[in-house]
């Protein structure tokens, strides 16, 4: 009797092992719809406002000319020779925020905002700029897009510049 009971138990166990070969099991299972409880619904964040507009630079490649918002009059004024003032020092410059218009330099050489001039040491070209302080004594300077173009530097160049205060 023990033997027949053991064989019966084994037959029941093995019968469940071959369930994957039936035609019904080849159909995908349909998941039951999930519902939220009142507590989950109150905790789930809901958007309250439209998403913020994407910045202008996310739309693909843009040219330097399309980002340069300076007028021809501003470019002429920046190219005019400046008088007076003194040399603050030399610095390595890089392109600053290309979306911030105007002629400016941000430099650790500058202690207070004012007017000045930058000179590209390599070619002698200069531009009148707004001087803006930049934190960090070992940091280089940042030039506006218009100032980089005015001194004849490429946008990816790191020109050595002289910074002058008027």
From TrEMBL:
Residues 23-54 have a biased composition (Low complexity). Residues 23-91 are annotated as: Disordered. This is D-galactarate dehydratase.
């Amino acid at each position: 009797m023990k033997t027949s009971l053991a064989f019966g138990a084994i037959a029941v166990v093995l019968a469940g092992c071959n369930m994957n070969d039936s035609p019904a099991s080849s159909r995908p299972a349909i998941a039951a719809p999930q519902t939220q409880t009142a507590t989950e619904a109150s905790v789930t964040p809901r958007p309250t406002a439209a998403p913020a507009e994407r910045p202008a630079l996310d739309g693909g490649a843009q040219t330097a000319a399309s980002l340069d918002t300076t007028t021809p009059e501003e470019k002429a004024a920046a190219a005019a020779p400046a008088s007076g003032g003194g040399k603050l020092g030399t610095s390595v410059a890089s392109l600053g925020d290309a979306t911030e218009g105007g002629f400016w330099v941000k430099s650790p050489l500058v202690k207070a905002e004012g007017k000045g001039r930058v000179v590209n040491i390599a070619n002698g070209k200069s531009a009148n700029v707004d001087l803006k302080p930049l934190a960090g004594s070992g940091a280089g300077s940042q030039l506006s897009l218009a100032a980089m173009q005015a001194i004849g530097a490429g946008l990816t160049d790191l020109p050595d510049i002289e910074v002058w205060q008027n």
